[in-house]
């Protein structure tokens, strides 16, 4: 027995040593690859791209729709002849709502599959986890979700909104509607805390009062006290940066406390068509959202996008802002590659500035300096049918300003 | 003043929710000493039962009324099955029940994901329960929370009466106090165990129905609730129904007060610190089983 146990321990130790040796080897090869950047494998007649989204876990609800939109773009591009004469071969990986897994899968896509670009990620946590992987390997990530700004990486293209394209227009809209005071409700993690810092700076400079600021842990469903505080504060509006499930509990509590969209509107920045369907329109009707795209956004490009999406995935599937930004990302990459005449990452990056695309949301333009894109800001109102109709837009695309450098009130933020 | 009463009611309603989710556990953990980690999934089963019933019954009010007994039976049956298949083999090893039922809880979560998908689902609340009662002084009391409070108190009353007055209640108490003596007195102890588990899990099902009025229905909703439920039973004193009732409301009010004065996260810390301090002082909980009487 003791001999047997001794052997097992020995075997275990050997495995550990072997694993350590393999890891060491692995990192060595990527290091040598990292010096020049990993070159995409274009030896065949295809070009590989990576799709990195959570297909399981808590974020799957949102990220699966993003994957679907990316696949739609890939199929459309392939049907039209591909990129530089090559068909796109998508390689999908599941980030599983787990940030270390995202980093591991990103490394795999870059080093093993030698993809030309990766499309994906949703939460800021997953983006922060893969950022060093892309920078080390000098590989490209197209990130499709609105985020808290104050970031810029040479190897990430941000196709969702940064703060001055979503949060600031949301506040401008409230101000234009005569809101003098706001109450901030958010989930307790990086995005809402950073967003609220920006909102407080904006309020201070624009004669708006922030009457309160409350955070609930992600997944929290007890909003009795927060809604009581919101109600007794008498604020003109609520700015909501809650993410995920908590929205359901929050809006149910909001309604049963007798608060209405007419008396105290809530502006949300993380609820799109897909989430509206999940939360229930009876709780959301009349409330406001800030995004760059809605399924109802007018224009031929959007009619085509919505029709193609519904034909592929079902008539009851709504399209949303992050999906649209992901779809647009694939087309922008194609345009950059074609302008550069090569798949090489550095050439693609330097070709990026000024690239435009007639996106479903309207014309978008890549800003090569920040690697964000100029997008039209849109405030929408949630209707009884679960769709969001625009009540205001910025008229023209808003240039990206991730560090809010053009706003004097934001000087103390970054 | 209005704010004070508003917060007091919030605290009481948090307490009512805590009580409802802990009530079944007070029976299976408190009285039978089985650490059932799958209790939260029985709550989830009750919630999904409400959701399924709403697919076929159009009236939201009617489906809620139907859901209460159906969820009780569905969750109760799951509990009885768990007892028959696994837990009865582990009565002598209470800590092992923790591991086994934790495994079961993970399996039930995955089962829910396979059947209903991982995105959360919603039920429609009856129109009557989405509004509120306006009291003088601008105070409002949400109808759905009032309903949950009444449901929790009714469940406590029914359980207390059943344990005290019915033959089944007497048999449960006898088995809990002295299993061997109960057995030689002619009580079919294994059948009593099964029934106790049925009732305890059924109460979790009721809690599930009530929770659909407050928040989302998802595969992992039970995980968030199970810790609170255990806290209430442990602090209340194992084997003591009245302990659970008092502690549930006390924790609810403490949580609401802490949250009002600070933030939600800090309030949670305050509650946990208070519990740890309390258990240092009274490791056996608020009430203990010292006499022959029970409940």
UniProtKB/TrEMBL annotation, chain A:
Sorted UniProt keywords: Signal
Stretch forming the signal peptide: 1-20
Keyword Cell inner membrane included in the entry's annotation: no
NCBIfam families: urea_ABC_UrtA
PANTHER family, A to Z: ALIPHATIC AMIDASE EXPRESSION-REGULATING PROTEIN, PTHR47628
Protein name from the UniProt record: Urea-binding protein
The species this protein was found in: Micromonospora violae
UniProtKB/TrEMBL annotation, chain B:
Keyword Transmembrane listed: yes
Topology within the bilayer: Multi-pass membrane protein
Gene Ontology cellular-component terms listed: plasma membrane
Keywords, alphabetical: Amino-acid transport, Cell membrane, Membrane, Transmembrane, Transmembrane helix, Transport
GO biological process, one term: amino acid transport
UniProt GO molecular function: transmembrane transporter activity
Alphabetical list of InterPro entries matching this protein: ABC_transp_permease, ABC_UrtB_bac, BCAA_transport_permease
Pfam families named among the record's database cross-references: BPD_transp_2
Subcellular location: Cell membrane
Family classification: Belongs to the binding-protein-dependent transport system permease family. LivHM subfamily.
Name used for this protein in its record: Urea ABC transporter membrane protein
Protein's organism: Micromonospora violae
């Amino acid at each position: 027995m003791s001999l047997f146990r001794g052997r097992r321990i020995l075997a275990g130790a050997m495995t550990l040593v072997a694993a350590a040796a393999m890891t060491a080897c692995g990192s060595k090869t990527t290091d040598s690859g990292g010096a020049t950047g990993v070159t995409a494998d274009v030896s065949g007649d295809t070009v590989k791209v990576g799709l990195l989204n959570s297909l399981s876990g808590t974020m799957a609800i949102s990220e699966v729709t993003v994957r679907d939109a990316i696949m739609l773009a890939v199929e459309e591009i392939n049907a039209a002849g591909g990129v530089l004469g090559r068909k796109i071969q998508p390689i999908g990986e599941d980030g599983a709502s787990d940030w270390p897994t995202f980093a591991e899968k990103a490394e795999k896509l870059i080093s093993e599959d030698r993809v030309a670009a990766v499309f994906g990620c949703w939460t800021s946590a997953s983006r922060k986890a893969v950022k060093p992987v892309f920078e080390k390997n000098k590989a490209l990530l197209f990130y499709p979700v609105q985020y808290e700004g104050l970031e810029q990486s040479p190897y990430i293209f941000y196709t969702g909104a940064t703060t001055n394209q979503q949060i600031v227009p949301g506040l401008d809209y409230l101000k234009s509607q005569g809101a003098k005071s706001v109450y901030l409700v958010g989930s307790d993690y990086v995005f809402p805390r950073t967003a609220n810092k920006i909102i407080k700076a904006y309020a201070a400079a624009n004669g708006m009062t922030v009457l309160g600021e409350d955070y609930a842990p992600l997944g929290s469903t007890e909003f009795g006290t927060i809604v009581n505080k919101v109600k007794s504060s008498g604020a003109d509006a609520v700015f909501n940066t809650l993410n995920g499930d908590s929205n359901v509990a929050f809006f149910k509590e909001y309604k049963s406390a007798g608060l209405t969209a007419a008396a105290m509107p809530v502006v949300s920045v993380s609820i799109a068509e897909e989430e509206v369907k999940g939360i229930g329109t009876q709780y959301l009707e009349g409330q406001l959202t800030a995004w760059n795209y809605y399924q109802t956004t007018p224009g031929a490009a959007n009619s085509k996008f919505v029709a193609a999406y519904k034909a592929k995935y079902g008539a009851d599937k709504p399209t949303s802002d992050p999906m649209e930004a992901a779809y647009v990302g694939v087309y922008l990459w194609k345009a950059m590659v074609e302008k550069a005449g090569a798949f090489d990452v550095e050439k693609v990056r330097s070709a990026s500035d000024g690239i435009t695309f007639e996106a479903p949301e309207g014309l978008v333009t890549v800003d090569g300096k920040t690697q964000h894109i100029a997008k039209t800001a849109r405030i929408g109102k949630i209707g009884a049918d679960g769709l969001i109709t625009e009540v205001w837009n910025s008229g023209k695309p808003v240039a990206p300003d991730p560090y809010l450098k053009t706003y004097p009130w934001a000087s103390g933020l970054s | 003043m209005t704010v004070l009463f508003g917060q007091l009611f919030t605290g009481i309603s948090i307490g009512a929710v805590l009580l409802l989710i802990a009530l079944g556990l007070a029976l299976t953990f408190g009285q039978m000493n089985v650490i059932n980690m799958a209790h939260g999934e029985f709550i989830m089963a009750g919630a999904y039962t409400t959701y399924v019933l709403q697919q076929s019954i159009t009236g939201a009010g009617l489906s809620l009324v139907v859901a209460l007994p159906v969820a009780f039976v569905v969750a109760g049956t799951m509990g009885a099955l768990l007892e028959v298949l696994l837990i009865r083999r582990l009565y002598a090893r209470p800590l092992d029940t923790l591991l086994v039922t934790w495994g079961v809880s993970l399996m039930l979560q995955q089962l829910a994901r396979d059947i209903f998908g991982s995105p959360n689902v919603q039920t429609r609340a009856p129109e009557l329960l989405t509004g509120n009662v306006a009291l003088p002084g601008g105070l409002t009391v949400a109808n759905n929370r009032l309903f949950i409070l009444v449901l929790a108190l009714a469940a406590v009353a029914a359980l207390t009466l059943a344990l005290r007055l019915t033959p089944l209640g007497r048999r449960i108490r006898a088995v809990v106090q002295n299993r061997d003596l109960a057995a030689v007195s002619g009580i079919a102890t294994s059948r009593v165990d099964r029934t106790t588990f049925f009732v305890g899990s059924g109460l979790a099902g009721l809690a599930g129905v009530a929770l659909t009025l407050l928040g989302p229905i998802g595969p992992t909703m039970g995980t968030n609730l199970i810790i609170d439920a255990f806290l209430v039973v442990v602090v209340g004193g194992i084997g003591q129904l009245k302990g659970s009732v008092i502690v549930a409301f006390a924790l609810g009010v403490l949580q609401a007060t802490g949250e009002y004065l600070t933030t939600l996260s800090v309030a949670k810390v305050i509650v946990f610190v208070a519990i740890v301090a309390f258990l240092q002082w009274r490791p056996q909980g608020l009430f203990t089983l010292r006499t022959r009487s029970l409940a």
